[in-house]
Amino acid sequence: MKHARYAAAAASAAAGALAAASGAHAAGFAIKEQSPTAQGAAFAGATAEAADVSYMFFNPAALSQQSGTQGMASASFIAPRSRPEDASGQTVTGDPTGNLAGGDDISEDAVAPAFYGMTSVTERLKVGVGLNAPFGFTTDYDDGWAGRYHALKSEVRTININPAVSYEPIDGVAVAAGMQAQYVDAELTNAIDIGTITSLPRNNVPRTAPTQNDGLAEVEGDDWAFGFNLGVLIEPREGTRIGAAYRSDIEHELTGRADFSSDDQIAQQIIQNSNQFNDTGATADLTTPDMLSFGVYQDVTDRIALMGEFQYTMWSDFDELRIQFDNPNQGDSVTNEDWDDSWFAAIGAKFDATENLALRTGVAYDESPIPDNTRTPRIPGANRTWLSIGADYSPTSWFAIQASYTHIFVEESTVDLAATGNNATRGSLNVDYQNSVDIGSVSAVLRF
User: Is-contact 281 257, C-beta < 8 A?
Assistant: First the structure.
């Protein structure tokens, strides 16, 4: 019985850490900010406008609208704000875990870079490559907060290399395909309530107090995996473009280590004497979602254009997280997630103020895939509304710069977890979040 309880507790603690590799700040864990130009219109028409080489991220067939040889570099400064409030929790034995909320802001600012290059092999055949960070997030709570057994620090980073080829078999129709080589790296931590675990019936272990003898679970893992993307861009007449694109899921098996430690002397003794809380290798499956996008671009006058976009993201593949440990004394740990498929829709406009200056604006709605009953403190996001403005300036035919700003209104969210199932050793947790995001992006294009 003692070994079974410790095995379940260790599995649950490490699962809580690795689970963050499949959860994220805001709506899911995708990063849309891959093009300052498209961002200026809240990504309305991102699959169809093809204004510059960065649009190949949304639709590789956008390369068909570019000419010559080009290079582009961009950076998006993402400043999320997620403030936990009114946090409280109890252990499975009814002892309070405290009421500290975890900090004024548990999100961390980040810079998302992107690089693109393309060349025209012939007038109809174009090749390009994009280097992006399409998924990622960081959250970090104060050590003693009420939900420390569910989450402390969570950091996930990705790199995606995406070469693509676009071909125009007939005038006005372009088809394209690309390959994705994607790297994921994760570093996650959470506290372990060793006091509660050992306060249950036991043999030959020190007597401890619930919430008073905490340990720490730290997990690191990474993986390379591969996928593809497809696109089509149709221009039935000049000034009208319709685009469709598909980005495949990518199946990762994160491989790394689970380490257990404590600053508490009694907890240290338990960790050292337990054959479950040993440092060990660990693996977890992570699948980034399929994405299906449709866009339209329409010139209304010589200076005004309207755009629209719809994207459907298949998050429902993320129904469970299964952790496997190299330590044979630790069985698999399964966490139910049950995410839903979600959608993103945007409308926007472009105004050519001068021959060299274009202004953009747009509004979008971004549905969260996270059900209320499975939201965790690692994933405090909710539905979002985007408001964006942007400008691109081309002083010469060979050089252009772009800039955009977005404010995202995020709905209030609540984590409400009971001390049952996988959360039996983490305790219950109730905490409300006030969320928002600000994004500023810049880029530059060189054409040869």
Answer: yes
